[in-house]
Amino acid sequence: MAYTLITANRNYSSWSLRPWVLMTALGIAFEDRIEPFASATNYAAFRSFSPTGQVPALIDRANGEERTIWDSLGIILYLADRHPGVWPADEAARAFAQCAAAEMHSGFSTLRNDCTMNVGVRVEPHVQSPALGRDIARLRELWEQGLDRFGGPFLAGSSFTAVDAFYAPVAFRVRTYGLDVGPQAQAWVDHMLAHPAMLRWEQAALAESWREDSHEAEMGAAGRIIADYRAV
């Protein structure tokens, strides 16, 4: 197998989910290697396989050469050069998908900070800040735009593509924190959460035995935990 995809904890690692769910959904074969968050700072340990000291990282051993591809966006772009279906075939849908993925990659900082990803729990959040409200309103606007223009059920049309992978962690966040994104966008969330690749990730998250204190503290600071479905 030419590819090894290195990711971290299924409960916490939103960046890891992006290439993992895309490769799984598109049937791109890879060796699945997990390097869990052992502490709040994993830079030194992760530097052994990634130049940034972060996950995800993709190792490509094709043609007798070992090549490391880092950053979730970098990995998606690399795969798009080698595999069909990463981006939509339609030019307008592809332009939308690429812009929306780039916006997720560089934006929505309040959503990331206030609603940290934890697949296995449900949280009653504290009072929503204006900045978080703006992020949620923009999500709704963006998702509705894609669904209206390209007919759904995915964000850029009838097929799962990279733009859905980039927003896959947000689908888990919407469920975890009960975020109101409106009925049309919620239908996309529900469709994503029922996707076989997302269900595989969720099942692995619920079975994880390890916990990392700083990630758990971030979740606790976001609101009151009302349910925990993790097995251990």
From TrEMBL:
Coiled coil: none annotated. InterPro entries: Glutathione-S-Trfase_C_sf, Glutathione_S-Trfase, Glutathione_S-Trfase_N, Thioredoxin-like_sf. Residues 1-87 form the GST N-terminal domain. The keyword RNA-binding does not apply. It comes from the Bacteria. SUPFAM superfamilies: GST C-terminal domain-like, Thioredoxin-like. One of its GO terms (biological process) is glutathione metabolic process. GO terms for molecular function: glutathione transferase activity; maleylacetoacetate isomerase activity. Keywords: Transferase. The keyword Heme does not apply. This is Glutathione S-transferase family protein. It comes from Sphingobium cupriresistens.
